[in-house]
Amino acid sequence: MKAAIKKSIFCTLAALVLISVSLTAVAQNALTPYTGTYERMIGNYHATVIVSIKNNKLQAKQSWDGKVRIFEQVGDNRFIITLDGWAVEFMRNKQKKVTQMIVLGNEVWVKRR
Hints:
- By secondary structure, the protein is an alpha+beta fold.
- The protein has a single domain, classed as Lipocalin (Beta Barrel), CATH 2.40.128.
- Helices cover 27% and strands 47% of the residues.
- The protein has one helix spanning 2-31, and strands at residues 36-42, 45-54, 57-62, 68-75, 78-81, 86-92, 98-103, 107-111.
- The chain has an eight-stranded antiparallel β-barrel.
- A hairpin with a 2-residue loop joins β1 and β2 (45-54).
- 12% of the residues are buried.
């Protein structure tokens, strides 16, 4: 009887781990189209940010100071940079591919890769 209970508990825990891993993969897959390198000219400076996924959230690392900013999703293609409260919207082309990131409504960052 004890062996059957242990087996049942093990199976339940294994199922919970698989569900957790699956949900994490789904969350990351939903964010994957936003990842990549975005560029913008600021005066004579060629600025870049690298958008990646960490802990199921988007983050952007700035080329000019190495600072990392975390994004919270608030809608389809819309995010807030949590540290600053800045609005970010990702734009898509006709093929639904992410091509730009608009920060604060007017800063256009073009996706290069």
